[in-house]
Amino acid sequence: MPTDPIRYVTKVDLTKPGDQQPQVHNRWHPDVPFSETIKPGETVKIECLDWTGNQIKNNDTADDILNVDLTRIHYLSGPFNIEGAEPGDALVVEIKDVQPLERQPWGYCGIFHKKNGGGFLDKFYPEAAKAIFDLEGIHATSRHIPHVKFTGLIHPGIMGTAPSAEVLKEWNSREAGLIKEIQHNHDTAVANTPLETNAHAGRADSELAAKIAKEGARTIPGRPENGGNCDIKNLSRGSKCYFPVYVPGAKFSVGDLHFSQGDGEISFCGAIEMPGVITIQTRIIKGGIEKLSLKSPIFIPGDVQNHYGPSRYLTFEGFSVDEEGKQQFLCATTAYRQACIRAIEYLRKFGYNDYQIYLLLSSAPVEGHVAGIVDVPNACTTIGIPMDIFDFDIGPEGGLIKQDMRNCALIEGAKHKLIYEYK
Amino acid sequence: MPTDPIRYVTKVDLTKPGDQQPQVHNRWHPDVPFSETIKPGETVKIECLDWTGNQIKNNDTADDILNVDLTRIHYLSGPFNIEGAEPGDALVVEIKDVQPLERQPWGYCGIFHKKNGGGFLDKFYPEAAKAIFDLEGIHATSRHIPHVKFTGLIHPGIMGTAPSAEVLKEWNSREAGLIKEIQHNHDTAVANTPLETNAHAGRADSELAAKIAKEGARTIPGRPENGGNCDIKNLSRGSKCYFPVYVPGAKFSVGDLHFSQGDGEISFCGAIEMPGVITIQTRIIKGGIEKLSLKSPIFIPGDVQNHYGPSRYLTFEGFSVDEEGKQQFLCATTAYRQACIRAIEYLRKFGYNDYQIYLLLSSAPVEGHVAGIVDVPNACTTIGIPMDIFDFDIGPEGGLIKQDMRNCALIEGAKHKLIYEYK
Amino acid sequence: MPTDPIRYVTKVDLTKPGDQQPQVHNRWHPDVPFSETIKPGETVKIECLDWTGNQIKNNDTADDILNVDLTRIHYLSGPFNIEGAEPGDALVVEIKDVQPLERQPWGYCGIFHKKNGGGFLDKFYPEAAKAIFDLEGIHATSRHIPHVKFTGLIHPGIMGTAPSAEVLKEWNSREAGLIKEIQHNHDTAVANTPLETNAHAGRADSELAAKIAKEGARTIPGRPENGGNCDIKNLSRGSKCYFPVYVPGAKFSVGDLHFSQGDGEISFCGAIEMPGVITIQTRIIKGGIEKLSLKSPIFIPGDVQNHYGPSRYLTFEGFSVDEEGKQQFLCATTAYRQACIRAIEYLRKFGYNDYQIYLLLSSAPVEGHVAGIVDVPNACTTIGIPMDIFDFDIGPEGGLIKQDMRNCALIEGAKHKLIYEYK
Amino acid sequence: MPTDPIRYVTKVDLTKPGDQQPQVHNRWHPDVPFSETIKPGETVKIECLDWTGNQIKNNDTADDILNVDLTRIHYLSGPFNIEGAEPGDALVVEIKDVQPLERQPWGYCGIFHKKNGGGFLDKFYPEAAKAIFDLEGIHATSRHIPHVKFTGLIHPGIMGTAPSAEVLKEWNSREAGLIKEIQHNHDTAVANTPLETNAHAGRADSELAAKIAKEGARTIPGRPENGGNCDIKNLSRGSKCYFPVYVPGAKFSVGDLHFSQGDGEISFCGAIEMPGVITIQTRIIKGGIEKLSLKSPIFIPGDVQNHYGPSRYLTFEGFSVDEEGKQQFLCATTAYRQACIRAIEYLRKFGYNDYQIYLLLSSAPVEGHVAGIVDVPNACTTIGIPMDIFDFDIGPEGGLIKQDMRNCALIEGAKHKLIYEYK
Questions:
Q1: What does the angle CA A72 – CA A77 – CA A81 come to, to the nearest 5 degrees?
Q2: Last residue of a domain, which of C272, C300, C328?
Q3: How many domains does chain C divide into?
Q4: What is the C-alpha to C-alpha distance for residues A310 and C308, in angstroms, rounded to an integer?
Q5: Taking CA atoms, which of B29, B280, D88, D170 is between 20 and 30 Å from C54?
Q6: Strand C7-10 to C43-48 pairing
Q7: CA torsion B184→B190→B196→B201, rounded to 10°?
Q8: Are D56 and D153 in the same domain?
Q9: Residue B419 domain flag
Q10: What is the pairing mode between strands C76-82 and C250-258?
Q11: 3-class secondary structure, C184
């Protein structure tokens, strides 16, 4: 009657690029071959690469962030054959644990260069930057953002079932439509259609791999049909998530593990990104799509979270008047950007520069809420920063004392404007 | 050494229209005369009308909602002269309590007709509807939405300092600009410029009242400069809010009390609206605008909230693919609308119709989060519904049992389509 | 269809002694006449006197505490006839709200003189003392314990159903037994048998009143059979409490309202005592005693509490080695006393004297836990103090700065030893 | 600049008895040799045996519990030389993580036989019993207590600094005094004086080992001077604990890891006992004993806990009237025992037997509070059971449905009375 150690269905190698590891893949496609089989009810461990497949290093320069190859992302473990899952079912995934790998107790948060990835505030902070976080048990600290320590609400940035051929076609057409419609007005990519370069189709043979590379959807966006890169920080340990199943065996994939993330993941590479191991148990609800009206995943979070008390959040309001003073119409995106900018202007007072704060808002457990979304023309959102993650008082009545906060990792020779003067 | 009862600086009359009550006003303008003076450090009670000034009745028809006169809103108590406050200061308002009036232990949540007010989902639910809530201590229940009981996270929908003449001018020009730019593409108002009809300037004499009516900003939107109608449900009891001061005495106003509200206040008249009494204490931080970089209000919530535990939220994901299947670009507003629609489709299973659910999502303490806002082209948001507010199990594995849920208040003879068939 | 204001079933007079008010009583007895009738399902308001019946004043001396007449306590509102309740049923009481009276926005916490009431630490702090708290909305502050502000977890200290004649007899015999057995070893009362002096039997005529005075159980202890003076701080708003019913109509009584209390209520008059109003709704479970095995009340707390986050409690450990250094055997009472003493020694560093801290631990929302109760010979308990109730940092690494903390109310001319030197 | 994996300062062998492993010890004594040196500020990992040193097996009989050798307990890792710590200092230990060992993903909870260990309720449940828990990530489940799953509030049962010779002498004399005074009235040990049998002095040579065996204090009780076996479930991840230092290098030891425990750890072997690994970081406060008045350890819990919401606890009241109906005087121990008994009587309704419930109350995250401790003659305590750990509704109004709950592990042929009929 011994209880065996929990079975690993995936192990990863931190010394080799992701595309040399057949147990991972980086495109969504119904034909990516199964990586392993999991029985419903079985609890398994799945190691995951960091989303870039070992491209980022633990050092004090952001050169690797500047030069990151985004054609390669995201490396996902799987897809897994969940025994008995059929199209029309719901796949229940219960997250039992997520942990960094003992052999790599650090993660990173990056700000991509505006020309290579960008982020929510790339208009103001176009240069590349990086913060390395040391991960010790439940705590993250960074030499690049001093005087901060926080507990990770650890989670996978990406989980999803494979699309059917029909769903995939819909994705590709929908996103191509957007590009056609608005790309000419933007100087960064508004969406990404299938890209053969560096597509990785897991265990597929070359013919199939070519097909998948040609048709496979990029993993960058989350999508309503299967979740994917939803970046929901609350999808942490203990969560039960319900996914629609579109193909036999469900072809569930997971990756992009985050030690911690703020709501919005604003710097894009914005969580504390890390390789790690996720422990899950699965279950199938026959006919679950119809039973649950499951057009998009739903979930119930777990009962363990970092837990600061409502009165420990310093909260900034943001409205849909943009940084040029222009009125936008009920735009929650603009409103959230404004809330972030208000937080940056405030936190500067303590000695951090804007890049450091941008990294911090991306990676720390900040709460981003929709507040009012009907009071024309202004949407209102809030961003709440847990005051207890700082080892000094950031409260408005705490003295507002400036300290030497060093700097995050930057590009050698780059001319970062470390403080942006908002109007 | 007796401790006297707390001083009321405003009382209201629930039997007379708002515009017959000089202690309230319904436009933002620097010249609205002071209603009363409050010393910093003094705790005072302020009664407030419901936002419509007694237009809505406790009955089973939505006719009053259909015919509500929106030129009259919102009736705010004040403005108050906070002794010693000067432009450039920050005004700290600590909310000690918010309560319904003992003499009117009920409130309402309304869905405005698309042609008269509208709301977040008016495209699908264009008709007027209403739910009356009985308020008993901390609990709200409604005969129009059976099997639900919840605790109010009670708060004022509107608090703000008066704009200076310059700020007011900026508002009017900014919003007029939007109207000019996009109104022709919308069939409901995208913004509201000053409107003389039914403007109420408090204690102003007729000449001043005419000026205020002509120039005064509408109270509908929250605005970055002074907060106003921000509809932040967490600005509840115990909160300390920091406002910029633009005029001598600050001219602080407050109103639009909500017994409870969901993030987004999606039906516009979407909280449990009520007359009530708010107890506040004020404080001035000299030069606080500069000290705190205070372009918009900031706040620290209180330590008392309804408190359900993270694992008690059933959470729906929404992405920025709209209800026509069209891809929108990183639009959190669309994404939040999608999350709401997913919740509606799900909750229908228990016997509620869409109008009832729309009212419920507006008024119950649901949590709306920005999740991911950088994964082009999809923004992802979540809406979390506390399962403990239902007296039956709404969980995906709780049996999904349909009950007779009666109906909300509707318009006699109107042809509401009570269930909208989303694609 | 108007919703009427909630019906008051009891009002009290704050200007007259409790025994001149027939709607209250101060003994437990099956024959105390009904004060009012309440229908199951009806929500009602019940005003309550403070437990002493207006004996304590808002001033800066503890003379009233020293001379308090404890033969008169506790004045309870009721007993109420819950229509249809019969012996063997369970009575469900849902607390909808508890509030101080608008006409008396203050309460008190007292330390009784060792010879008149005493308390948990009377061996070390034998003198009388008092702190007056101003109650403003959710907040309590005291001029007698500066630099502290907290949110009340407001609750009734006493709720209970009337005992049957048999249960009453059991109580009286059980407690008389204890007196006989151990009183000779104690210099304060170990229990109180029925006492005719100042017994108040509500609306009873003089003959019945005499019987009740002679037989009625004192209200000082909580008792397993009916709850009574259980002083459970978590029996706050939203709680549903299940009581055994022993007599027709249940004869439910309530009183001893507390604005706030620490676990243990250590100074005996140790909560923030106040007159106030409680709003309840009742329900009957037929045959509930057997159905629920209801030998003692059970309850489910409400979902609204002050809520500080686990990492905001400074926690002291106490073991069952007493203040003389003597080993006691698994005595959680000794262990909790030790934890309290450790907290007193620590909080002194900030300038408070022991009487002030004793009052604070009694009245603030401190958490007292049983930790280990099996590791012979030491029981271990903890007392957790929410750090956020102080306006300075009480943490071990926060500088430990001493301030002028003034004093609590004392007895003129008394020689309080304000700091006790523990070994 | 690579971040190395965290250093292990102790590894343990799960296949050998504890006394064959020199990196652990099982007595408190100032002369136990250092096991390893830790620098302040360094984060280290420490593996720990389960408290019995591998005596208990994963099977379906309680024979190993019946025959457990309690002369061997508790095996602690250490003592560690915290570089620079001197008598008079405070040692700060921050718990970064506690985890089960990947190679043994299970733990156990035992009820000791009354004649060999006993427990809080051994009068009623004298036989041995056991439950094995499978540990999967954050979750524990047991085939011996079906329909329950909970999240561990994982912690070390024992942490402490070594006593000085003087402190040790005080312990031995104090506990011998108790034995002399009251042992004759008890049929189980009231305390344990030093015992040479199976004493394990770590790396001590035979002469020193003999001295330690003769003088060393048993590890069973927690003690005020150094904490030790305090069994505080909230001393979990993220906690910062402050210990007095009595000997050079502090000689900090740790062990008795618990995956989860209820307040009281009532069955003595009552947590989910397991081998595991704890990650800590230390710091020294020079002169900290005086600075912090540190007679007993103090701590600040971490910000991560299982978190159920106050309204999800079914709470039982217990008063100090014992199970014979005899009145005890303000005895919180009796009161807590009564609360436990009330919970047992209630939970039986669902099909569990008393031994199963006894195990469950010991090991699940139940909350035991001191409620009132001054209302002569009754102390009142509460035990709160999180309803969300059951996969069915245990609420009083949830139908009270009985199921087949199988059984816990028992002794072959033993005549357990599985239900005790309380009066």
A1: 130
A2: C300
A3: 2
A4: 7
A5: B280
A6: parallel
A7: -170
A8: yes
A9: no
A10: antiparallel
A11: helix
Task: Identify the residue among D8, D59, D153, D304 best suited for mutation to test binding to A, counting A beta carbons within 10 A and taking the highest.
Answer: D304
**In A286-398, at which residue ranges do the beta strands (DSSP E only) sit?**
298-300, 304-306, 313-319, 367-372, 380-386
Burial of B302 (0-12, 13-18, 19+ CB in 10 A): buried
Query: Are B185 and B229 found together in one domain?
Result: yes
Same domain, C206 and C234: yes
| Min Cα–Cα distance to chain C from D227, Å | 8
pLDDT digits (tens, 9 = 90+) for A256-303: 999 999 999 999 999 999 999 999 999 999 999 999 999 999 999 999
Q: Which residue has the tokens 């999508």?
A: A223
**ipTM > 0.95?**
yes
Query: Any residues with CB less than 8 A from the CB of B187 and at least 6 apart, and which?
Result: none
Please state the pTM of the whole predicted model: 0.97
For residues D283 and D323, membership in a common domain is answered with: no
- Domain check: are B40 and B184 in the same one? yes
Cite the DSSP H helix spans in A282-406: 288-291, 332-347, 354-363
Report the C-alpha gap between A140 and C187 in whole angstroms: 56
Any chains having at least 3 CB pairs less than 8 A from chain A are B, C, D
Chain D interface includes A237 (CB < 8 A)? yes
Percent composition of chain B: helix, strand, coil (DSSP 3-state, to 5): 20, 30, 50
Q: Report d(CA A54, CA A15) in Å as an integer.
A: 7
D162/D220 same-domain check: yes
Q: For residues C291-329, b (16+ Cβ closer than 10 Å) or e, as one string?
A: ebbbbbbbbbbbbbbbbbbbbbbbbbbbbbbbeeeebbb
Structural domain of D362: 313-410
Q: Which residues of B touch C141 (CB under 8 A)?
A: none
Q: D: neighbours with 3+ CB pairs under 8 Å?
A: A, B, C
D65 & D149 share domain: yes
Is D80 in contact with D38 (CB distance < 8 Å)?
yes
Contacts of D389 (CB under 8 A, 6+ apart): D148, D149, D150, D364, D365
Residue C267, phi then psi, degrees to nearest 5: -90, 10
Quote the pLDDT of residue B2. Answer: 56
Q: What are the distances in angstroms from CA B37 to CA A238, B8, B75, B253? A: 53, 11, 19, 12
Last residue within a domain, chosen from A300, A327, A347? A300
Closest-CA residue of A relative to D100 is A5
> In terms of domains, do A229 and A199 share one?
yes
What token pair was written down for A160? 């999803």
**CATH assignment of the domain containing D320:** 3.10.28
pLDDT tens by residue, D57-78: 999 999 999 999 999 999 999 9
* Residues B300, B92 contacting (CB under 8 angstroms): no
Looking at residue D74, the DSSP 8-state letter turns out to be: P
- Residue B112 · residue B268 · CB < 8 Å: yes
Instruction: Give C182-185 contacts, CB < 8 A, sequence gap 24+.
Output: C182/D329
B151 vs C: CB within 8 A: yes
CATH number of the domain that B173 lies in?
2.60.120.580
The verdict on residue B144 lying in a domain is yes
Determine the distance in angstroms separating the CA of C2 from the nearest CA of chain D, rounded to an integer: 31
> Helices C332-347 and C354-363, interaxial angle, to 10°?
120
Work out the percent of chain C whose per-residue pLDDT is above 70. Answer: 100
**CB atoms C307 and A308 under 8 Å:** no
Interchain contact A157–D (C-beta under 8 A):
no
Average pLDDT, chain A: 97
Does residue D1 have a pLDDT over 60? no
- Picking from B32, B24, B81, B83, the residue whose alpha carbon sits closest to that of residue B54 is B24
